[in-house]
Amino acid sequence: METERVWVEINLDNLLNNLLTIRKLVKNKKILLAIKADAYGLGAIEIAQFLENKIDMFGVASIDEGIILRKRANVKTPILILSPIPHEAIPYLFEYDLIPNVSDEYFLKKLIAYSKDNNKRLKIHIEIDTGMGRTGFWTKDFKKIWQIIANENSLEVEGIFSHFPVADSDLLFSKRQLKEFLRLIKDLELNKKVLHIANSSGVLNLPQSHLNMVRPGLVVYGILPEGIKSKKIKKLIKPVISLKSKIVSLKYFEKNMSISYGRTYFTSQPALIGIMTCGYGDGYPYQLSNRGEVLVKSKRAPVVGTVCMDLTMINLNNIPNVTIGEIVTLIGKDGKEEITVNELAFWANTIPYEIITRLSPRVPRVYFRNGKIWKIKKNN
């Protein structure tokens, strides 16, 4: 990456390892991989093409994300749109063979009307709100909704699902959700449908929630949700993402000199400061100002001063023989040291999901297979 100022490295071998680890864990259950938000920032087209025929279903957030996979990635795998869509977009479901999430009565009736008017049939998944407090039918209302659906030949109910909001932190609440979901399924004799509720945390923490399909995302991308205690899982799941940059300038600062915007940092002693070509315009959080750490020559170096749009400063006093052009690891391993996405999220007072999905499209993604570059994705 001689000409690049910052880049993301994506280890596809580790990605496949993680998927196979989850497949062994859930045994013969189907797997829907959440590939929304550009595969959590990794690149939906590349990930979908790599995993085609290795996954049972992909999950996206919108019609547009589904169309991109069909048109640009030539994906044939079933695609479920996990979020509600505008009823004006209904025709595209049929055109691109996409499966909608049906989560409110208004959309359901619009979908039925379009199907009838055009003499077309469509597979759907129905969302039940068992405690997520977001989209989906309340369980108390679902029997009425099911009567509407059951009498319609224009729709094929392939699946029914719900969401865990706290499967990483409140297993008692999650178990109550699962119980309520399964009670409803049993009452309406829907056990033969594709049933799914388990996200990454559910897959790892609640084996009874695997049902006949699971919906992992984060864990396949090599990041463990908070609250996972299993040492075995921690050993089996391998990191997929690395974020790297370069030092482009070295400056000696005397004591009591300020660094960067706002003058939020003053040197307490003479210091060698390295300037690296990565900032919040690349997705490196502004909140890491005076708080984050990076790896240089297998050692940790603190971020000093305010993170800028394109540049960030680091203190190199404890790292000897640093030269301009030195590689900086912001996420990932360097020797025996490692900075994880979870660690970065903790410093930035956010969650791992946000760290990786906020990585800017201007940052090239470099995909590795068998230790060699497989593909480089650039948006500029």
Largest sheet: 10 strands, mixed
Radius of gyration: 24 Å
Q: Which range does the strand content fall in?
A: 25-35%
Shape: elongated
- What is the number of E strands? 21
Content-based structural category: alpha/beta
> Average pLDDT value?
95
Distance between the termini: 15 Å
| Helical content class | 25-40%
**Would you identify the regions where 5 or more consecutive residues have pLDDT less than 50?**
none
Total DSSP helices = 12
Quaternary status of these chains? single chain
Can you tell me about this structure?
The protein contains twelve helices and 21 strands. Strands 1, 11, 14, 15, 16, 17, 18, 19, 20 and 21 form a ten-stranded mixed β-sheet that branches. Strands 2, 3, 4, 5, 6, 7, 8, 9 and 10 form a nine-stranded parallel β-sheet that branches. The radius of gyration is 24 Å and the shape is elongated. 29% of the residues lie in helices and 27% in strands. The longest helix is centred in the middle third of the chain and has 17 residues, at 171-187. The protein is an alpha/beta fold.
What is the strand and helix layout of this fold?
Elements: E1 6-11, H1 12-26, E2 30-34, H2 36-40, H3 44-51, E3 57-60, H4 63-71, E4 79-81, H5 90-95, E5 99-102, H6 105-117, E6 122-129, E7 137-138, H7 139-150, E8 155-161, H8 171-187, E9 194-196, H9 200-205, E10 213-214, H10 231-236, E11 241-253, E12 258-259, E13 265-266, E14 271-276, E15 293-296, E16 299-302, E17 312-315, E18 327-334, E19 337-339, H11 341-347, H12 352-357, E20 365-369, E21 372-377
Parallel strand pairs: 1-20, 2-3, 2-10, 3-4, 4-5, 5-6, 6-7, 6-8, 8-9
Antiparallel strand pairs: 1-11, 11-14, 11-18, 12-13, 14-17, 15-16, 15-18, 18-19, 20-21
